[in-house]
TIM barrel protein
Amino acid sequence: MTEPLYPLRIAAAPISWGVCEVPGWGHVLDARTVLSEMAALGLSATELGPPGYLPRDPDELRSLLETFGIAAVGGFLAQVLHAEPEQAIAAAKETAVLFAATGADVLVLAAATGLGGYDARPQLSESEWRTLVDTAAAIRDVAAECGLRTVLHPHVGTHVETEPEVERFLADSDLDICLDTGHLLIGGTDPVQLAQRHAGRIGHIHLKDVRSAVADEVRSGTVEYSEAVRRGLYAPLGEGDVDIAALVSSMHAAGYRGWYVMEQDTALQPTDSAELPSRDTERSLRHLAGLVAARI
């Protein structure tokens, strides 16, 4: 008999409400509005969003989260890993100290290009790739001193994006990865197959659903990533072309009991409210609840 799929550890992320670290990405809702929307949907855990979006003072941050009954899971940190590693390590240490003070347990690291945004990326030399791998390992050690795990996030517009790059990182590094269903698919990797090949290396999961036709345009270079997001690249879970059910079932069967962070990247216009992203998040939650119910 297949083991039942018990309730999942589900968390939110501010990017689902348009809160992004990229300058000019879109209208940024204030933190209290976003946390209030999360709480209204019954969510009780979140990643912390871009550096500086939530308070940098640990006491103030804990107080704000407690106001809405939300716990900190950890958060995303995009750093240039292939050059000037001391800067990346220092930034990661500062972030890890803050995350640890909130009770979070994971640092989600991405290999930024240094260009700003995710619409273009240069190729790395062999020595730059080695520096990237070594810097990621050093950040892993710094974060571990604070009691945090570090996972490397394959991400569109970073130096670990395509399937060969993901496989090379897994071969060259002992860091686990954040399996982001959306970014992997856009980068040309089937997230379900990757999860099956490397189940023991999945340390964290970001759940996205993707409209493949738009993803194809990003992959071919026809449309920039930021524009694709504005054109509806991401759909509520169960309404796109990622096999969310197979992914969750496969990871559960492999023994994964970590977080499933709902991350449906969106970009808001100045006149937009929280209504649409909250409605999409609610639809995603209903889809996940249906997956659980179907297997109990």
In short: The longest helix spans residues 275-295. The chain has a mean pLDDT of 94. The beta strands are 9-11, 45-47, 71-80, 106-112, 149-152, 176-180, 202-207, 209-210, 234-235, 259-262.
